[in-house]
Input
Amino acid sequence: MASNENPLGPSPKAVEAMKQALPEVNLYPDGNAYYLKKVLAIHLRVGEGNIILGNGSDEIIRVIVETFLNEGEEAIMGEPAFLIYRLAVKIMKGQSRLVPLKDFTHDLEAMARAINERTKLIFIANPNNPTGTMVTVEEVDSFMKEVPEDVIVIFDEAYYEYIERDDFPRTIDYLKENRNVITLRTFSKIYGLAGLRIGYGVAGEELIRGMNRVRQPFNTNSLAQVAALAALGDQGHVKKSREANRDGKTFLYEELDKLKISYVPSEANFILVGVNEDGKVISHKLMQEGIIVRPMGMYNLPDFIRVTVGTEEQNKKFIKALCKIKNFKNRQD
Ligand SMILES: *Cc1c(COP(=O)(O)O)cnc(C)c1O
Output
């Protein structure tokens, strides 16, 4: 329960598609991912020229920074937010400007105030990892009014398909306004294909062309391409995964409430849990009970752990182990 993977696994259709494709792995993949892009374009209602595929969205983050950020230029991001942004910026000798979250949520007003003449990129993980919080359509709209046209805003929507609120922003619509916006999505989370490494970015054609020049020609492999295509076609699996996640979150919230353990309500498939002591110690003890969670020291949240919503059985096991470690009376016995 440490890496926000889908506990239900991949769509069986994705597995079948890979089996079919196995005998042809002697061939190089389609560097342009013709079929996957075609279907994605229909799915997202954008042009094929508005899509870039990556070896996970992690790779696209790297490609964005390599393509657009020059030495000494700045990228604005939340703190804490997804760590990969900062690493990518550092590799390119850029500067990360960290803007503290407010109530565990991206503070878009403060992020807008942080823009200066050196600002090139702004990263917004929505929902944010590791907090699970989201910024709303209203907040994003007012924020975008403050962002200069030449600054590129990256909305990292790795958990998009888990969202059930109707005030989530439709960032792909900024395409129509010709804004410099890149929306990132992935097949690693709800689609259950993390091991295959495939994600995508959606942006204006000019931005996509620039990034395509920088990415490696065969950055997504052939099995990942066919699996992603099949997974897209199995929205039933997506729906089932979203519903299981909702039920799992409800269960975990109820149990944590009973135990008076605080947590940040999440729009994603993980929960940031306040353990009131060293999260690393708690994680280690959970490990001894057979459960892996993520301690949050790396994110400057030493008293927290991040728990991925698991199957019903995993969630129960987690609560039971947490009770044992915290010496609470286990209500499930
Ligand atoms: C998991 C995650 C990703 C990375 O996904 P990959 O497509 O597996 O590289 C990107 N952004 C955020 C915020 C994530 O949590």
Observations:
- The mean pLDDT is 97.
- Residues 235-258 form the longest helix (24 residues).
